[in-house]
Amino acid sequence: MRKIWDIPGGVHPAENKSQSNQRPIADIALPKEIVLPLNQHIGAEAIPCVNVGDHVLKGQRIAEAQGFVSAPIHASSSGEVIAIEDRAIPHPSGLSATSIVIALDGKDEWCELQTCEDYSEIKKHDLIQLIRNAGIAGMGGAGFPTSVKLSPRADHVIHTLILNGTECEPYITSDDVFMRESAEDIIAGALLLAQVLGNPETILIGIEDNKPEAIASMQKAAEGSRVEVVSFPTKYPSGGEKQLIQILTGEEVPSGKIPAELGIVLQNIATAAAAYRAIRFGEPLIKRITTVVGESLDVQQNINVLIGTPIAHVLAEHGFQVAQSARLIIGGPMMGHAMEHSDIPVIKTTNCILAPSHAEMPEQPQAQPCIRCGMCAEACPASLLPQQLFWFSQSEDVDKLHSHNLFDCIECGACSFVCPSNIPLVQYYRASKGMIRQHDSEKLKSDRSRERFEFRRERLDKAEAEKEAKRAARKKAAEAAKKKLAEKAAAGEEAPAPVAPKAKAKVIDPATQLKKIERAVSSAQSRVERATTQLNTAKEENEASRVESLEARLKQAELNLSDAKTKLAQHDSTAPVGDPAPAGTPDATSTAASVIKEKIAMSPRDKQEKTIATIKKRIATAEQKYAEAKESGSVTADALQNGIEKLKAKLTTAESELATLPSSETATAQSQPDATVSAADAAIAKAQAKAAELASMSDEEKAKAQIESLKSRLAKAKTRLEKAEAENNENVEAFRTGMEKLEQKLQEKLQEVNS
Amino acid sequence: MAFLHASSPHTHARSTGSTSNVMRTVTLACLPGIVALTVFFGFGSLVNITLCVIFCLGFEAASMALRKREIKFYLNDFSAVVTAILLGIALPPFAPWWLMLTGCFFAIVVAKQLYGGLGFNPFNPAMVAYVVLLISFPLEMTQWLSASVSLTELVPFSDGIQQVFLGSPLSQIDGYTAATPLDVLKQNISLPMDSLYQGNPTFSSARYAGLGWEWVNIGFLAGGIFLLSKKIFTWHAPVAMLVSLTVLSGLFYDGGSSTSSGSPLFHLLSGGTMLGAFFIVTDPVTSAVSTKGRLIYGAAIGALIFIIRTWGNYPDAVAFAVLLMNFAAPFIDYYTLPRTYGHKKANSGRINNS
């Protein structure tokens, strides 16, 4: 005897099974039409592969599975497709869904089926495909596509296959009678599913002990096979997937996970038999056993019914008395859905049609206040606190609902069943779950758009930062070039003239270029216009020979124009915004300032290292120049050597200073003032001040300052000229012209100031 | 054809019955205790209960009318009746009518309806009323009749009614009132327990805990066992309370010196112990919800009862202990969530899973 475990909670509602399980499974007359909804399973709905007007045979596939979690649909009898339209479906929402409607011809003519005597050699993958093609979905009630359950992840090694013959809901006996009558099919199905799952060590069939005939029948069929039939005490909801696993293995499916996580796969017994018949006889899922029960029916029994049969037809076949009926329930009294009308079809998951009388299921009295008596908590098979969930559900307290594990509720209805205040607890939980799902999906949506927005902003910021860095680098380079220049001057060499004009040219460049391009565009445009008018006149005057050449010219002109225009566009996009020329001086100072700032921002150690690097570089260039000068026998060689020595001395002091600096960056820049840097800072500050002074000066003041400088230069030139004349220098003439030029410039400036 | 649209489940347990049934069963279970009260202290408690039921139903109906609810539906839940009976039992027999009126007002209007009615009250209404009265009218609230040895010694009906409605106190009639056993023990400073039990008439004619009182407590214990057998509540809270009271009184029982705080049996059968354990602590609305929570809740009440009885200013402590733990119930709930199926451990003390 296998050890079985108990589940917490649970209830013992009146079983009401004897009304229907005392008779053999019956057949009913064919309906006139069948309605096959495209979504009878969990997952994506199937896509029709027949058209209105097509004649279909029994077992013919009429809709294809769409995606992994889906199942195809087959015609359950022969006839003509008369519509593919929205029809009411047996769903708690009461909504309708696309369905294929077939008018039956009454012949019930099968299509050709592919049978297979020995499937032991067929590969696992092919078996799964065959089961999928047969449209098999969980027949216990959930309708999960069986092929999906049979394809566990590679890291989930299945060691236990459980077939569920529990049938714990009151009234329903379809599995009970099916086990009595078709035990061999079920055992064969169990072995087939085991084959597909890689032969798990344990194969169990769980049945509640209120079905002794079914247990006996199953045990007889299982004799000599690896399949073990296990019975356990009757208690609702033992037949829930999670509950049955707990009863038979003592393990709990982790919250939010699937049984395969534990190495367990669980299937309904009817599903296993259907899978077997699909492989062995090629029969797709087109019929099922359904319990038709309730006191408003003359006949209560189990029927073998074609999927798609209208429930109104089923009820009519059982002597349904509308006046007596309290409600129409699809499924059992604990978890079934009450439907508003009977114009809905039997689908793959319809295990029971319950039409109770008023006396049998009176209307629920008005709910009284919850007194938190805790009877619900004692009944809950998931060990939840239904009374607290009810409380939080009313106040829509999402956090509390989560912390009280609302989503572990299996909606079995045990809490509502025992509630002395008649509170429809499950309905509250369903509503709260719906609310939270909607809330979560909305949150997801808004999170996504927020992320998108933030990413975009980040991207723009990054681009801006890159631009800024490039700009800074350019400025730094300019600064370095200037420094080099200054250094050269310091080393005794005269400032090479071309640098300044070069920089100037660069500054002016974009404007002049723009003007040039604009001119080109306008001239090209005028040329095009001229060519067009000439062409027109030529055409008017019918001068064929001229027209040709003019046309060619016009084309050329147009080409030129478009070229010029693209150039202009390019220039527009690359040229810096704003007028570059007049802002030259302040710009330069701001560059210098930014470099200084950068330098100040650096740690003293970094600064020092940088200084050393610069000095080294300078030494290298100076040495090179010195070598050159020596070779050419220039007089500056000595001066250069002098400079190199000076630089070397500077380098050694800088290096020794670096050694004294703390390596940690915690030391503040200000507390460790570095001589070189501060000197440089001072120089830059001075330059900045000068530039600022210049910028702040009025035009007149500027002119005056210029005059002053011109005057001093003129004086210098005069002394030089005199010296040259005294020395009888060959350059006297040149000096004189230079001085004359200066004088002229000075005159001009003076005139400007005066005017 | 449109059928009834209803949410599952479509059946309902017939065994547990309705909330009204629960309340009616509780009323029924009070009977043995009420009989014992009447036998030993006269029909004063019956007068109390009758008046309290009338006042409570009146206040309940008035509140429902003010809140524009269906009066009959809410009176039918019997919760006001249960409150009234518990208050009537807790008050001294032949309590003045205005005392009861005040108590019923606080129980129904202040402690219950102002919080939203049945199921929404954080504190046990009967205990709130009792404590309000005890603090406001200590004289009237401590006038317990002396238990009579035979039925002939009971207070005559006319005298009783005069006290209730005309305010001529029975205490002026010699021999009608006496200190309760808990009072006697509290005020005892010199006598060892043995001589106290022999000397004091309350104890000398009784076995463990004072004449009449032990039978009253046994009566409520019987009612409690009846309710347990009917599965009206679970055993956790009352058993935890009685066990913790027994353990504490046993620990501090020094065998009967003059400073003794009384034996465990004395504590179990004195004052409101059994009434509290089976009719007050088990009030589901104001107690902790999980089984573990109810164990803690009950045990804490037992401990508080002993502490207040022994070292506090009031001779009995059930009402204070219950109210103090009513405060703590949500806190206990927060840390005693049961472990849900498929979870490694309970979410206790956490707001969110994540």
Overview of the structural elements:
The complex is a heterodimer of chains A (755) and B (354). Chain A is α/β, with parallel strands linked by helices and 755 residues long. In chain A, 52% of the residues lie in helices and 11% in strands. Chain A contains 22 helices and 17 strands. Chain A has helices at residues 18-21, 124-133, 146-149, 174-181, 183-196, 212-222, 241-249, 269-280, 311-317, 375-379, 386-394, 398-403, 414-418, 425-490, 499-540, 544-574, 584-601, 604-632, 636-660, 675-696, 699-727, 732-754, and strands at 26-27, 33-37, 47-48, 55-56, 61-64, 73-74, 79-88, 96-104, 160-164, 202-208, 227-232, 264-268, 287-293, 301-306, 328-330, 337-339, 352-354. In chain A, strands 1-14-13-17-15-16 form a 6-stranded mixed beta sheet, with helices on both faces. Chain A has a 4-stranded antiparallel beta sheet with strand order 2-8-7-4, with no helix packed on it. A 4-stranded parallel beta sheet of chain A has the order 11-10-9-12, sandwiched between helices. In chain A, helix 6 (212-222) links the parallel strand 10 and strand 11 (227-232). In chain A, helix 4 (174-181) packs parallel to helix 6 (212-222) and helix 15 runs antiparallel to helix 16 (544-574). With 354 residues, chain B is mainly α. Chain B has helices at 19-29, 31-41, 44-66, 71-75, 79-90, 97-110, 125-136, 138-141, 157-166, 181-187, 193-199, 201-204, 213-229, 236-252, 264-268, 273-280, 291-311, 318-335. In chain B, helix 3 packs parallel to helix 6 (97-110). The model of chain B has no long low-confidence stretch (mean pLDDT 85). Classes of the chains: A alpha/beta (755), B mainly alpha (354). Chains A and B meet through strand 16, helix 10, helix 12, helix 13 and helix 14 of A and helix 1 of B.
